[in-house]
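Running this now, will post back.
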Amino acid sequence: MSQLFPSALLETLRKARSIAVLTGAGISAESGVPTFRDAQTGLWAKFKPEELATAEAFLRNPKMVWEWYRYRFDMVRTVQPNPGHYALAEMERRVSEFTLVTQNIDGLHQKAGSRNVQELHGNIQRYKCFEDNQAVESWAPTEEMPPKCPRCGGMIRPDIVWFGESLPDGPYVAAHMASETCDVFFSIGTSAVVFPAAALPGMALRAGAVVVEINPERTPLTAQATYVFQMPSGQLLPELVKAAWGAVDSSKQ
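Update: finished.
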């Protein structure tokens, strides 16, 4: 597969001081994580995600929304990273500055060993108080759904970004800065239509970065990207890392 990679791209990667990566649902789907809409099966098939992933829905029927997220949590908690996740963790070890920005909420990048991960949409394995927006690490065992915050008695909710809510300032500022200062920007497994994340590749292009898109399907970014690979990231990324820097640790795949 190494012949897929232009020598100019490989040389750019080897010389890169800073790399930024944006990942979307596609890389998680390769590990078996259902996409946001594919999760609407079984008892949940009659609901649209937008009817459940809002603060208004939580206030209207907190038990139902909590149960939906527990259902989604159960789907992802046993899923393992795929070779694409491990290749990105290896890439991080090869450059001095590396920022991995993800729209995914499953924590698979961290599970694969990535360190500088900026989660734009939160993490389904974390919780916070609906009232004060502060993290909740644990609570007393209870049959109540949702459980109550041990500090103030407010309802506990998943620490993810719902429709109508702003992205967390820290991760988005870090993503913005990385996009404008990187030498190479990867857009991996994302549709490039969900803003504000979809604006990041354009920032990188305007700043003069080499932009690489890895996605089996065409997106609005395809015509603008410097290099485009229409393949699953789990197949392509390990080969790209190997071609640029040497073998990926096979014990982690």
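The longest strand covers residues 122-129. More later if anyone needs it.
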